[in-house]
Amino acid sequence: MRALEATTHYFNQAADQLDLTDNMRVLLRTPKREVQVQIPVEMDNGELQTFIGYRVQHDNSRGPMKGGLRYHPEVDLDEVRSLASLMTWKTAVVNIPYGGAKGGISIDPRSVSVRELERITRKFIDQIHDVIGPDTDIPAPDVGTGAEVMAWIMSQYNKYHGFNPAVVTSKPVELFGMPGREEATGRGVGIFTLKTLSRLGRKIHETSVAIQGFGNVGSYAAQFLTEAECKVVAISDVSGGYYRPDGIDIAGALKYSREHRYSLEGYTEAERISNEELLELKVDVLIPAALGGVITSDNADRVQAPIIIEAANEPIRPDADKIFSDRGMTVLPDVLANAGGVTASYFEWAQNRQHYQWGLNRVRQELDHVLSSAFERVWDMSQERSVSLRVAAYMIGIGRVGRATILGGIA
Ligand code: GLU
Question: Is the CB of 181 under 6 A from ligand 1?
Answer without folding.
Answer: no
